[in-house]
Specification:
By secondary structure, the protein is mostly beta strands. The chain contains one helix and twelve strands; from the N terminus they run ββββββββββββα. It holds the Pfam family FdtA.
Length: 139
């Protein structure tokens, strides 16, 4: 099982010069998993929330590409909130973690890198079922 302490901010390389900044994200180097999927959330009304589900295996890295938002992670026992507002910081979230993305600023863009292809069987949509699963002994 994952524990909330495994969720952490990863500082991404930032290369600055007079033309602007460039950050690089390489699978297995800057991200602790092989990238299988990338998606992004945008045009989310200011103050709105997304997610509100858990994953069994999926690992993710959340990056605020523009604006800001909060990611709340929950391992079935503890909750922790991370505020993201810099494009050179990513939040790593391991599997068996509930996540909520909320408090989007106007114009906020949330980039998410994922360790697996989309699989509806990897989701928990009911929080009580997720918590019950975290209490079961590992196989």
């Amino acid at each position: 099982m994952s524990h909330i302490d495994q969720c952490r901010i990863i500082e991404l390389p930032k290369h600055s010069d007079p033309r602007g900044n460039l950050s690089v994200i390489e699978s297995g180097i800057h991200v602790p998993f092989d990238l299988k999927r990338v998606y992004y959330l945008y045009d989310v009304p200011g103050g709105s929330s997304r997610a509100g589900h858990g994953h069994i295996e999926l690992q993710q890295l959340f990056v605020a590409m523009s604006g800001s938002f909060d990611v709340i992670v929950d391992d079935g026992t503890r909750r922790k909130k991370f505020s993201l507002n810099r494009s050179y910081y990513g939040l790593y979230v391991p599997g068996m973690m509930w996540r909520e993305v909320e408090n989007f600023s106007s114009g906020g863009v949330c980039l998410v890198m994922a360790s697996t292809l989309y699989d509806p069987k990897d989701y928990y949509h009911d929080y009580d079922e997720f918590v019950a699963a975290t209490r079961q002994p590992q196989k």
